[in-house]
Amino acid sequence: MKNQNIGKRQKHIPLQLCRRMKDLREDSDLRQWQIAEVLQIDRSTYAHYERGKTRPDLETIIKLANYYGVSVDYLLGNDSDTAQREKYQPRIPCLVDVSFNFVTSHRSY
Q1: Residue among 54, 51, 75, 55 at smallest CA distance from 63
Q2: What is the three-class DSSP state of 93?
Q3: Which of the residues 50, 91, 96, 108 has the least number of beta carbons within 10 Å of its own beta carbon?
Q4: Integer-rounded Cα radius of gyration of the chain
């Protein structure tokens, strides 16, 4: 009897990734659509990530880690340092920050 999975790529989605994505979002009092906007994806796509129906690509995982101020290892479940989770601060850009960065980066000396 042949193994029917030979040659097919298995989509393994770490359960820890799904849990941590949801926990970080909820701990930040954010909705799925808000994180989806940050990632520039549809809300339904983000919902599939949290439920483990689809796997986010590496770029998306990196964006999430940067947004929450945690390591990619933490998101993937390879780092169980709970102190890292407690120190995260979501980076929610506001108009003042964007304006300040624009002004300071365009100074002429």
Answers
A1: 75
A2: coil
A3: 108
A4: 18
Q: How far is CA 28 from the centre of its chain?
A: 13
pTM of the predicted structure, to 2 decimals: 0.65
Is 20 in contact with 50 (CB distance < 8 Å)?
Answer: no
Tell the CATH topology of 15-105.
Answer: 434 Repressor (Amino-terminal Domain) (1.10.260)
C-beta of residue 73 within 8 angstroms of C-beta of residue 63: no
Find out whether 14 and 77 touch, Cβ atoms under 8 Å: yes
The domain locations on the chain are 15-105
- 55-107: pLDDT as tens digits: 999 999 999 999 999 999 899 888 765 545 555 555 544 444 444 444 445 45
Q: Cβ neighbours of residue 48 under 8 Å, at least 6 residues apart?
A: 54
